[in-house]
Amino acid sequence: MNRLVLLLPLCAPLLYAPAANAYNTSLTVTASANAAYGSPSYDSDFKAIDNVNGPSAYAVDALYQVPDPRSGPGANLETYRSSASGFVSAGILKATASASATAYAANVASGSSKVSFSDHFSVAGPSGRNIDLTLTYLVSGGLSGSATARGSVQLGTGDSISFSENGYTPRSFNCSWTPSCTGVATFSVPVNTLISLDAFLEVGASASSYFKPTATQSSANFGSTGLVYLGIADNRYQLLTDSGYGYAPVPLPAAAWLFAGGLALFGTLVSDKRRATQAL
């Protein structure tokens, strides 16, 4: 069982100086590889992290192998492997999970990752009236085999955007007060009022050949997605946040470069960890 702490920089610049109040990030990643249903022999890895005023990141994996007594050293009859990883900062959520199991054997492997952040914001302006705020939950990622993904963004006003998908149904969004949406909705929010912002992304993957047709290889790769944007069309008003992050719908060029660099580092660390595991 291997563990690796992913120490990643915040993948976007702060557009405002952090306020005295805090924002929070958290993640839970789990991986398990069992020889058989109910078997006492298995490998597992788990990590839960909560941070204040900073990102959270971690990766876990599990590997269980059944040796082949008829062959030489290093030969295995069955191999079960799973992994999960996550990264979360203000406005950014990334999660991956994968699982594989030898076909035609009573086995199971699974991985899951859930990341979330919470922040507060206010719309500062000349009037105490309500103003239109465009909320975007940009989701991109892929599923294969027996895998699931879901997530949501919730405002303290009660407005929200959520999505879900699995191997049997395509991705679908649900937006408050809107009959149909694709992850973008406009809500009326009060001016000069502190409003909470909570978001999460959760993925899972499982592999087993004991109960067909569950796939023997599954993955949920949302490691480059889960972006939350807030937009105000009226330039007389300004968005202020506890995190200092601006949630701008169109990042500045410097922000784009930093974000891309963070994604590349995240992918490299996870790939290095998987190669180390496979070398066992």
Whole-number tally of structural domains:
1
User: What's the total helix number?
Assistant: 1
Low-confidence stretches: 1-20, 251-266, 268-272, 274-280
Helix and strand content put the structural class at: mainly beta
What is the end-to-end distance?
10 Å
Average pLDDT metric: 81
Radius of gyration: 21 Å
Question: Which range best describes the helical content: under 10%, 10-25%, 25-40%, 40-55%, 55-70% or over 70%?
Answer: under 10%
Task: Tell me what the structure shows.
- This protein has 280 residues and is mainly β.
- It has one domain (3-278).
- It has one helix spanning 253-278; strands at residues 3-4, 24-34, 42-52, 56-67, 76-89, 92-101, 108-124, 130-138, 142-144, 146-155, 160-166, 172-175, 184-190, 195-207, 217-222, 227-231, 238-241.
Write the layout of secondary structure elements.
Elements: E1 3-4, E2 24-34, E3 42-52, E4 56-67, E5 76-89, E6 92-101, E7 108-124, E8 130-138, E9 142-144, E10 146-155, E11 160-166, E12 172-175, E13 184-190, E14 195-207, E15 217-222, E16 227-231, E17 238-241, H1 253-278
Antiparallel strand pairs: 1-4, 2-3, 2-7, 4-5, 5-6, 6-15, 7-14, 7-17, 8-13, 8-16, 9-15, 10-11, 10-14, 11-12
Give a brief rundown of this model:
The protein is mostly beta strands.
Overview features:
single chain, 280 residues, mainly beta, 8-stranded antiparallel beta sheet, 6-stranded antiparallel beta sheet, disordered N terminus, disordered C terminus
